[in-house]
Amino acid sequence: MPHDPLDGWTPPPADPEQPAQVRRILALFRPYRGRLAVVGLLVAASSLVSVASPFLLREVVDTALPQGRTGLLSLLALGMVAVAVLGGVFGVLQTLISTTVGQRVMHDLRTGVYAQLQRMPLAFFTRTRTGEVQSRIASDIGGMQATVTTTATSLVSNATSVIATVVAMLALDWRLTVVSLLLLPLFVWIARRVGRERKKITSQRQKQMAAMAAGVTESLSVSGIMLGRTMGRSDSLTRGFADESESLVDLEVRANMAGRWRMAAIGVVMAAMPAVIYWTAGLASGPAGQGVTIGTVVAFVSLQQGLFRPTVSLLATGVQMQTSLALFQRIFEYLDLPVDIAEPERPVRLAKPRGDVRFEHADFAYEPGRPTLRDVTLTVPAGSSLAVVGPTGAGKSTLGYLVPRLYDVTGGRVTLDGTDVRDLDFDSLARAVGVVAQETYLFHASVADNLRFARPDATDAEIEAAARAAQIHDHIAALPDGYDTLVGERGYRFSGGEKQRLALARTILRDPPVLILDEATSALDTRTERAVQEAVDALAEGRTTITIAHRLSTIRGADQIAVLDDGRVAELGTHAELMAAGGRYAALVRRDADTAAADTPAGPAAGPGPVAVAEGESLPV
């Protein structure tokens, strides 16, 4: 089971009535308060215009028609048409502005979450399913679209309409108004209960959708399809997906039906209110009552019917807002994640980094109490090379990843040209340190686009030169589309060695003064390794190079070789010095030679066949 990325972190209370959370949601709209003020004016104007029609109707019924005043009738009719036109114009303008504001808020949320995730440490992504992250950005924020684009404006518009309509109803007849509003508190209470139910179900539904999206992302990737088919698990995966989908069906039905009968009952009662108004007006017009004119009754029923729509809409909006709070909470959880690796307030910028790297009593632990690196002290002068070897789990890759701040030390420090890397601005550090990892990642784009990711302004000639240096140009040129060839999902149209050479070309194009080579030739056969090693040697010339060694044959010429064991530097020296010492490194070399001799077939054509001695550890999962 994957770890929850939020383990160890306590989110703020999810109570939708808590003022702090309400203020936080309202703060999303603060940058657009000018446009919202215009919307408010349009809403107020629209509400005032809409309540004018019943009063015009009363004059038609009580004065113009009984007295046969055709001139007045024409003016009143023209006024009713003008009211309708103005209401339509105000409505269109209001929708345009409010939708624009809502979409800008959606944009702010999406980019805010994406930017926050870009700042998260590498460890966050090693314990988080990709589909979960995608679901939060796409599904959760998409589910809030109705709230941020229309709900807020609908709330203001309907509230204004209700207030204006109630005032107009009181102006017509206070007794009929009291009868009309008797059940309103009950309706509000019902709507709030329905909203709480839907909020709870929505939270469950989004978690289920995230789980299903994560499963789809994993099982329908190229690696997932290959694994499923070769293991004969395709049918099992399909059944698992069907079960997840079935659970989602149940939650969707529950979410849509929660409180549906109660809300329908509210609609029925409010639709029947005209009958109650007629009955009440009849009683008020009896022998013991004060008369109510026909025009007043007709105008009042018209207002009451006008009150029906915004009131029901207000109740529905309240339910929708409660539902959306579950989505807001999930987004806020990501926005509130602590950023362990942050740029300092006053970062240091290196104009021309030399490449002097030092590890000064560096400690690192993925989990408290379980150190991966312990008191590592190493000096890599500018332009020199350091090779790091050791058994699996010794901390070799972790040591290399401390330099570009993929992780931060938990003790001691790592410096570049005498400056703690934690004090450098991210751009300077990224320009100074290039990483070629064991697992090469390529985008589903053309070869040229993948290479140009390192330098967006690179010319075609510079891209080709980088590819030649990495010994991959001839292969690319032989493809039907050349550098415009799509590499496929994660580069699966290319072999492991070809992808590794593309990664080298990408780093060559970036031209950093410090290179971290994390077993960069581990995926290559012997012949390709020799060719790529030549490219690596040419690239490393004059640069500071830290090589996480997979094959000992590639690091014998290193200026320094550090042997890590249990997170500590057990040995340090040149190849000749360490061989003469007869310690751990010498044992690794002897084992390498014995394994190579056992695996190399007899015959003069057989190559030296260097093999892996100690595989590098992968990122912790």
Automatic annotation (TrEMBL):
Residues 597-621 are annotated as: Disordered. Its main location: membrane. InterPro entries: AAA+_ATPase, ABC1_TM_dom, ABC1_TM_sf, ABC_transporter-like_ATP-bd, ABC_transporter-like_CS, P-loop_NTPase, Type_1_exporter. It is a multi-pass membrane protein. Residues 37-323 form the ABC transmembrane type-1 domain. Residues 597-614 have a biased composition (Low complexity). The keyword rRNA-binding does not apply. Keywords: ATP-binding, Membrane, Nucleotide-binding, Transmembrane, Transmembrane helix. It comes from the Bacteria. One of its GO terms (molecular function) is ATP binding. This is ABC transporter ATP-binding protein. Residues 357-591 form the ABC transporter domain. The keyword Transmembrane applies. It is found in: Cell membrane. It holds the Pfam family ABC_membrane. The chain crosses the membrane at residues 36-57, 72-97, 174-191, 263-281. It comes from Streptomyces synnematoformans.
